[in-house]
Amino acid sequence: MHSTSRLAAPTAIDDLLLFRLSVLLATGGAPVIRLCEGRHGITRREWRVLSLLGRHADLSPSQLAEHAHLDRARTSRTIGTLVDKQLLQRLPRPGDRRQATLQLTDAGQALVAEIFPRVRDINHQLLAALSAEQVSLLDGLLDALQAQADGLPPAADLPKADRHRGKGRLPRTD
């Protein structure tokens, strides 16, 4: 008898793909957070920015925001913090000093070189639950899901959260 998967016919929040992925990220990502914050004094967002710049040198802040899938304001704050920590530097672009590219400092490069192998080990530990064929299949499935997500209509017709006003309460009707 063929049963319908939880993902195909969700009946509760813990059956939804995005919720399950969020739980996996929280659980599987906890050792990465502990490594970054506890041992190296950087946040997960700072790690993301550093590791992306380690792979893609000389990005502009807006290019970095796009690669990191972060909004520009969060990216800008993270860049400022990493500059203060002397892990990142802004370099003016030749011919247009208003524009800057971002580059890891020597300390930033050393930190990425130290952390990445440990994060890669955590990644390998998670994937150890799967066969090589399943890992390959998962890789393709993630690509397909990302392509589908990229094609979803923007949420522009939905209201943005106003977290500063009323702490998310519904507006008063009286």
TrEMBL record:
Sections of the chain in a coiled coil: none
Start and end residues of each stretch annotated as Disordered: 151-174
Transmembrane domains' residue ranges: none
Protein name as it appears in the record: MarR family transcriptional regulator
HTH marR-type domain: residues covered: 14-147
Pfam families reported in the protein's UniProt record: MarR_2 (PF12802)
Organism expressing this protein natively: Curvibacter microcysteis
Compositionally biased region (Basic residues): 162-174
PANTHER family: HTH-TYPE TRANSCRIPTIONAL REPRESSOR YETL (PTHR33164:SF43), TRANSCRIPTIONAL REGULATOR, MARR FAMILY (PTHR33164)
